[in-house]
Design goal:
Number of helices: 27
CATH topology of the largest domain: Rossmann fold
CATH superfamily of the largest domain: P-loop containing nucleotide triphosphate hydrolases
Structural class: alpha/beta
Number of strands: 18
Helix content: 40-55%
CATH class of the largest domain: Alpha Beta
Radius of gyration: 26 Å
Strand content: 15-25%
Strand order of the largest sheet: 3-4-2-5-6-1-7
Distance between the termini: 73 Å
Largest sheet: 7 strands, parallel
CATH architecture of the largest domain: 3-Layer(aba) Sandwich
Shape: globular
C-alpha cells in the first residue's frame, strides 16, 4: 500500500470513518506533510482537532502507529471512541493485567491493530521495545509534546528520552502535538525531533467563540464576584483554584449558596474523583472547582464557562485551561479573577519545590551506593521521594539527567510487592504438581507474611529468606493466579538501571550541573508569573497579547475580549502584609515540639506551613492537620528565614 492516498480515498475515510466533510484549520497541511514522509509539529488550540492529524494517516499507513500520551484517562477516552468507529486500536498502560497486555501484542502480531496508545514511561522500558522489534512503525504521535522541554509548563523527564528512543526503534516520522508552546519550547521540540521549520504548523492561540474577561479584585472580593459571574453563565462551568484546600473551601461556599458544585483535586481518592468527573460529564453536577489536575482528557464540548479563581502560574496553562470552554463552537465565557496577592502562593510553590544542593547530594549518594560501574541496580522513585522528601517528579528528573548524561541506562521494571489471597486450600493447589514444583510453591507460600486475610510478599526479602530468586518468585505467583488458585495484586514498582562503566565524573560535578539546571528552571518559573501579571494588565487585545507571548505576530484584535469591548485595562495591587497572630505562632511552636521526622528541618517546616505538599508529610498524614498551609499567604522565603532564626 502506498503511503500517499489520492483525494477521493482520503475523503472516503474522512467521511466514512470520522463523519467529517472538511478539514479544520491546519489539519490538511499537517496530514500532507506526514504523507510526504516528513515529521511535523502541530500547535493548535485545545479542541481544534489535533487527534485527527494522526488518526487519519494511521488508517493508510502499513504497520502500527504509536501514540504517546501522558494521561491514562485521555488514552482510554480516545481508544473507546476509535473502537466505536470500527478502528483497530489498543492501549498499554499500568491498569492492564499481564494477560491483557499479552492479548494486545497478539493482536499487533496478527495485524489487527493500527494505533497503539502508551505512556512515555512504557516506551522507555526496554522489554516493551523488544516486543515491537520487527514491527513497522510508520508514525509516532506525541501528545502534549511541550512536556519534552524543560522550558515547557508541564515538563516530564521521560519525554526527554522519546526522541532518541524513536530513532533507535526506526520510527519513520514524528508528529508532535501541543496546544501551548512558546518560542523556546517550539525550538526544543523541533531540535529534538529534527522537524523542519516549514513543517511547524501553528493556528490561533484562542478560539474566536471565547469571551475573555479579566477582573481585578482583592482576596475578600473573590467569593462575591464568583457568585455574580456564575449567575451570568448558563451551563457547565469549571472553576480553577491553586490549592487543594481552596477547591474544597470554594465548592463548599458555592453549595451553601445554592449551586450544584463539587471539588476535584489529586488528593481525593480515585473513586471520588471518578464520581465527580462522571457527574459533571452527565450534567448532574454543574460546577467543578478544581486544581489543574482536572480537565486533561476531559472531552466535554458544552462547557460554557471557565473561571480562574486564582492567578494561573503561567500563560501556557491558562491558555490550555480556557481552551476547555466552548469546544462545541458556541459562545463561552472565560473569566480571570486577578488578585496580586495570589503571586505569593505561586512563588511559594516554586521555592518550596526546588531541591537544594544538599538534597541532590543525598539522593546521588544513595544511588551510587546501590551499584558499581557495569552493574545493574533497582530503584523505586516513590520510595526515594519519601526518604529524601523530594517530589517523585524531581527524582525522575534526576534519573533522566543521569541517563541523558551517559551515567546510567534504563533496563526495565518489576513489581516488588505482591498481595495474595488463596482461593483454594494449599494442598488442593499443590495436587498434581511435580515434586520440585510442590516444594517451591510450599516454600514460597510459607514465606509470605499473613495479615488481614492475605499473604504479603516483598520479593527482595523473600530472596534473602528463602533463596528463591525474585524473578522466579514473581513468575510462580503469576502462574498461580493464571491457574485460578490465588487472587493477586501487584504494587511497589521498581525500575532497573545499569550504571555505565564509563561513569568517571565525580559526584560533585554532577550535583553542580544539576543544581544549575534546577535553578534555571526556578528562575524561569518566576518569570512566567510576571508574564501572567503583564497579561492581566495589558492595554491591548488579550488574543493579540497571548499570540505575541507564543511567538505569533500580526494577529488581528479578537473583538470579543473585555478590552476589545471597550472596558478599561486593570491594574493589580498587592494588599498589605499582615502580622502573624500570637495563636498561630503558638500552634507552630507546639507542632515543632512534637518532633515529626517529616518536619525535622526548617525547610520542611516552612513548606508545611506555606501549604506546599511534600512526600514525607503526606506519608505521615500530616497534611490533614489544621496547621497545614496556615501561612500560605506569607512569602516562603520570609517564613523560612523566621524558622531558621
Amino acid at each position: 500500500m502506498k503511503d500517499f492516498p489520492d483525494a477521493a480515498a482520503l475523503h472516503r475515510v474522512l467521511r466514512g470513518t470520522f463523519g467529517i466533510d472538511v478539514f479544520r484549520a491546519g489539519q490538511k497541511e499537517v496530514i500532507q506533510a506526514l504523507f510526504a514522509g516528513r515529521s511535523a509539529l502541530a500547535v493548535f488550540p485545545t479542541g481544534s482537532g489535533k487527534s485527527l492529524c494522526y488518526q487519519l494517516p494511521a488508517l493508510f499507513f502499513e504497520g502500527v502507529t504509536l501514540v504517546v500520551s501522558p494521561l491514562i484517562a485521555l488514552m482510554k477516552d480516545q481508544v473507546e471512541k476509535l473502537r466505536a468507529l470500527g478502528v483497530g486500536v489498543a492501549r498499554i498502560d499500568s491498569t492492564l493485567a499481564d494477560d491483557e497486555v499479552e492479548e494486545v501484542f497478539a493482536q499487533i502480531a496478527g495485524g489487527g491493530i493500527r494505533l497503539l496508545y502508551l505512556s512515555p514511561e512504557r516506551l522507555a522500558g526496554g522489554a516493551f521495545r523488544k516486543r515491537l522489534k520487527g514491527i513497522r512503525i510508520p508514525l509516532m504521535a506525541i501528545d502534549e509534546a511541550h512536556c519534552i522541554s524543560e522550558w515547557g509548563h508541564n515538563f516530564r523527564p521521560d519525554y526527554l528520552k522519546i526522541a532518541g528512543l524513536s530513532r533507535r526503534m526506526g520510527v519513520e516520522r514524528i508528529l508532535a502535538l501541543t496546544a501551548t508552546a512558546t518560542v523556546p519550547v517550539v525550538r526544543d521540540i523541533r531540535r529534538n525531533f529534527r522537524i523542519a521549520k516549514a513543517d511547524c504548523f501553528q493556528t490561533g492561540v484562542l478560539r474566536p467563540n471565547l469571551r475573555i474577561t479579566v477582573t481585578a479584585c482583592a482576596e475578600h472580593e473573590k467569593d462575591g464576584l464568583l457568585v455574580e459571574k456564575l449567575r451570568e453563565i448558563e451551563g457547565p462551568v469549571i472553576v480553577y483554584a491553586t490549592t487543594r484546600n481552596a477547591t474544597e473551601a470554594v465548592a463548599t461556599f458555592l453549595q451553601k449558596n445554592g449551586f450544584s458544585a463539587k471539588s476535584y483535586h489529586a488528593g481525593l481518592t480515585p473513586e471520588l474523583r471518578g464520581q465527580t468527573q462522571d457527574s459533571f460529564m452527565q450534567n448532574t453536577t454543574r460546577i467543578v472547582v478544581a486544581t489543574i489536575a482536572f480537565g486533561m482528557g476531559i472531552d466535554k464540548p458544552d462547557i460554557r464557562g471557565v473561571i480562574h479563581y486564582h492567578l494561573p502560574k503561567c500563560l501556557e496553562g491558562y491558555s490550555q485551561e480556557t481552551g476547555r470552554a466552548g469546544r462545541d463552537g458556541l459562545p463561552a465565557c472565560c473569566e480571570l479573577l486577578a488578585c496580586m496577592d495570589d503571586t505569593r502562593t505561586l512563588e511559594n510553590f516554586i521555592h518550596g519545590s526546588s531541591p537544594s544542593a544538599q538534597t541532590l547530594k543525598n539522593l546521588l549518594d544513595r544511588i551510587l551506593r546501590m551499584a558499581a560501574p557495569g552493574r545493574m541496580f533497582a530503584v523505586s522513585p516513590y520510595e526515594l521521594s519519601i526518604s529524601h522528601d523530594m517530589r517523585e517528579e524531581t527524582v525522575r528528573t534526576v534519573l533522566a539527567y543521569l541517563e541523558l548524561g551517559g551515567n546510567i541506562r534504563r533496563g526495565g521494571s518489576y513489581h516488588d510487592y505482591f498481595r495474595v489471597r488463596l482461593l483454594r486450600p494449599l494442598e488442593s493447589i499443590l495436587a498434581g504438581r511435580a515434586p520440585r514444583e510442590k516444594s517451591l510453591v510450599r516454600k514460597l507460600i510459607a514465606a509470605g507474611e499473613s495479615a488481614y486475610g492475605s499473604l504479603h510478599f516483598r520479593l527482595h526479602e523473600i530472596q534473602e529468606k528463602t533463596g528463591i530468586a525474585r524473578d522466579k518468585a514473581a513468575e510462580t505467583i503469576k502462574e498461580l493466579a493464571a491457574a485460578g488458585d490465588i487472587r493477586m495484586e501487584q504494587r511497589g514498582l521498581r525500575e532497573i538501571y545499569l550504571m555505565e562503566k564509563s561513569w568517571k565524573e565525580p559526584p560533585a560535578g554532577v550535583i553542580a550541573g544539576m543544581s544549575v539546571r534546577f535553578d534555571s528552571r526556578a528562575a524561569y518559573e518566576h518569570e512566567r508569573i510576571r508574564s501572567v501579571i503583564a497579561y492581566a494588565e495589558t492595554r491591548k487585545c488579550r488574543a493579540v497579547h497571548l499570540s505575541k507571548y507564543f511567538g505569533r505576530h500580526g494577529t488581528a484584535p479578537c473583538g470579543v475580549c473585555d478590552l476589545c469591548r471597550g472596558e478599561k485595562p486593570v491594574k493589580l495591587t498587592a494588599g498589605e502584609a499582615v502580622d502573624i497572630p500570637d495563636g498561630e505562632w503558638a500552634a507552630m511552636s507546639t507542632l515543632r515540639a512534637e518532633n515529626h521526622a517529616a518536619l525535622g528541618t526548617p525547610l520542611q517546616m516552612a513548606r508545611f506551613l506555606c501549604g506546599i505538599p511534600s512526600p514525607a508529610a503526606a506519608k505521615a498524614k500530616l497534611q490533614r492537620r489544621a496547621e497545614f498551609g496556615v501561612w500560605q499567604h506569607h512569602r516562603f522565603s520570609n517564613v523560612l528565614q523566621m524558622l531558621e532564626a
